[in-house]
């Protein structure tokens, strides 16, 4: 599953540079995660880096975008080909 940022985000800017897929960007009010680019860092790291650095723990699993580990790996491989 991709991740999403809740409205508890304090716009601290620490998550965006940690995302290896450039899935995080500044939205109108808070940072947002593009579910088409989020792989939970599968293919890059063992754990989602944005969750590791978030000081308010506002980055959660997005239940609206369910994906298996294999699907996240396939998405990672597709993203890498586009870069």
TrEMBL record:
<dbReference type="InterPro" id="IPR047927">
    <property type="entry name" value="YfhL-like"/>
</dbReference>
<dbReference type="GO" id="GO:0005737">
    <property type="term" value="C:cytoplasm"/>
</dbReference>
<feature type="domain" description="4Fe-4S ferredoxin-type">
    <location>
        <begin position="31"/>
        <end position="64"/>
    </location>
</feature>
<keyword id="KW-0408">Iron</keyword>
<dbReference type="GO" id="GO:0051539">
    <property type="term" value="F:4 iron, 4 sulfur cluster binding"/>
</dbReference>
<dbReference type="InterPro" id="IPR017896">
    <property type="entry name" value="4Fe4S_Fe-S-bd"/>
</dbReference>
<dbReference type="Pfam" id="PF00037">
    <property type="entry name" value="Fer4"/>
</dbReference>
<keyword id="KW-0411">Iron-sulfur</keyword>
<dbReference type="GO" id="GO:0046872">
    <property type="term" value="F:metal ion binding"/>
</dbReference>
<keyword id="KW-0813">Transport</keyword>
<feature type="domain" description="4Fe-4S ferredoxin-type">
    <location>
        <begin position="1"/>
        <end position="29"/>
    </location>
</feature>
<keyword id="KW-0004">4Fe-4S</keyword>
<dbReference type="InterPro" id="IPR050157">
    <property type="entry name" value="PSI_iron-sulfur_center"/>
</dbReference>
<keyword id="KW-0249">Electron transport</keyword>
<keyword id="KW-0479">Metal-binding</keyword>
<dbReference type="InterPro" id="IPR017900">
    <property type="entry name" value="4Fe4S_Fe_S_CS"/>
</dbReference>
<keyword id="KW-0677">Repeat</keyword>
<protein>
    <submittedName>
        <fullName>Ferredoxin</fullName>
    </submittedName>
</protein>
